[in-house]
Amino acid sequence: MKKGKRVLTTISAAILILAMACLYIGAQRFFAIRPATEYEDKGVYTFSPYRVLPTQVKNTAGGRQGRLHPTKTVYYLYYRETGGTGYKWKEEVSSRGVGQKKISEGREVKRRVLSIKKEGKYITIEPEQTAKSYVAKQRRIYGITSICSIIVLLGYLGVWIRKRKKKAEM
């Protein structure tokens, strides 16, 4: 019985920490979302793949794997706009071979370009999206993450209050 209780306590502590982390990250990203009015729609452009490059990124693995290998290699497939506007876009691919195969196929991709007026930068999104739908999707993703985390934390608070009341009654 005590071993089961210890396992349950450990699992619940891990869930509590995960909920707090999700709330922090979700809220941080939710409030960092730009309003749709800050984007200027430049239209839909055609992009073609032209190279695959490996990139070193921080390895998020924990334990021994994280200590022995602090970075890992990911492959990005780079695209450029076919009309000569200079717009570029990249996507992560599982391996160099997959990227090379996409290059040899030469399949072009349509992407909508949204310019960030204040910063002189741009992002690319799916062609059927608009700035409003992109912002709404981002808000929905991070809002749901934050709300679910709050629900879990309120559940923990309720259980904690209930346990304290039981102890006080004894």
Structure report:
The chain is built from 4 helices and 5 strands; from the N terminus they run αβαββαββα. By secondary structure, the protein is α+β, with helices and mostly antiparallel strands. Strands 3-2-1-4-5 form a 5-stranded antiparallel beta sheet, with helices on one face. Helix 1 packs antiparallel against helix 4 (131-169). 9% of the residues are buried. The mean pLDDT is 92.
Offer a few descriptive terms.
5-stranded antiparallel sheet, about 170 residues, alpha+beta
* Helical stretch tally: 4
Molecular shape: elongated
Q: Unreliable segments (pLDDT under 50, ≥5 consecutive)?
A: none
Largest sheet: 5 strands, antiparallel
Straight-line N-to-C gap: 22 Å
Number of strands: 5
In N-to-C order, the SSE pattern is: HEHEEHEEH
Our estimate of the beta-strand percent is 25-35%
**Quick check: average pLDDT?**
92
Q: Structural class of the helices, strands and pairings?
A: alpha+beta
Q: How many structural domains? A: 1
Q: Helical content, roughly?
A: 40-55%
Strand order of the largest sheet: 3-2-1-4-5
Task: Work out the radius of gyration.
Answer: 23 Å
